[in-house]
């Protein structure tokens, strides 16, 4: 792990500790300990297992896209991809670091960069598409509830929905419009020509080859409807388990009256709130959103504890696991 990544991770860890400390400033420690003692740890363990299933499902999606007659990805390498993605997402604004981290992991497994880029973009398009589908379903179930609780924030949530749609359209243009992709790459590469025409020409030739591989793989994936439909179904199930995590936490802390459909829908909306915050991990916005949306289900002290457990499972668990996976040298799997 680079010095910069260690620095950002340390900063986010300090920010998280500060947020937890600030949240607990009005909570009686004896009361908090009593809540922990009376918690149903079985349900809290189920919440952690749901996060494990979420990561496992993503590993399966990676294998489905990568595995062909000419190349195979081991289960160890497939599991490494979503873990390093969690680390990359956790230390970068708007979760932009997840894709490069996954690309590094696949390259270390011996997957061509052009093919790996196409696979990751298609995987990302499917993931974003399922987020949009889940968000539409969540709005049907819980928009009135959210509008009542968040007021003006409801408009920002809809704005986030529009951004996700624009991202999907932009990615599809990159994947299936070669001229558009080349124009973007050449524009980025142009400054190199100012310093070295020879290096510019060599890089252009290399990138042309990678772009050709990228678009060839994109067309192959598009024609493989079996794999595409399988990954859509897997991603939907993956997000379903992720969105169930707050429900299991509420059950573990005694909120037996929580409605599973409403709680699941509210978590979808929280994910949309997090995506609007430029701070890595949506720090601050995630905690505020959780507190506002789930306040009717728990008392203030229990709510703060629920928020802390939720963040530990959905954010910090992935980051720590990602650090371990990132520092495990990827053994190359050759076709």
From TrEMBL:
One biological process term in Gene Ontology: lipid metabolic process
Family annotation (InterPro entries): L-PG_synthase/AglD
Catalytic activity: L-lysyl-tRNA(Lys) + a 1,2-diacyl-sn-glycero-3-phospho-(1'-sn-glycerol) = a 1,2-diacyl-sn-glycero-3-phospho-1'-(3'-O-L-lysyl)-sn-glycerol + tRNA(Lys)
EC class of the enzyme, as a word: transferase
Known role: Catalyzes the transfer of a lysyl group from L-lysyl-tRNA(Lys) to membrane-bound phosphatidylglycerol (PG), which produces lysylphosphatidylglycerol (LPG), a major component of the bacterial membrane with a positive net charge. LPG synthesis contributes to bacterial virulence as it is involved in the resistance mechanism against cationic antimicrobial peptides (CAMP) produces by the host's immune system (defensins, cathelicidins) and by the competing microorganisms.
Transmembrane segments: 7-24, 44-66, 124-146, 152-177, 227-250, 256-277, 313-330
Gene: mprF
UniProt name for this protein: Phosphatidylglycerol lysyltransferase
Membrane topology: Multi-pass membrane protein
Keywords: Antibiotic resistance, Cell membrane, Lipid metabolism, Membrane, Transferase, Transmembrane, Transmembrane helix
GO molecular function: phosphatidylglycerol lysyltransferase activity
Subcellular location: Cell membrane
Annotated EC: 2.3.2.3
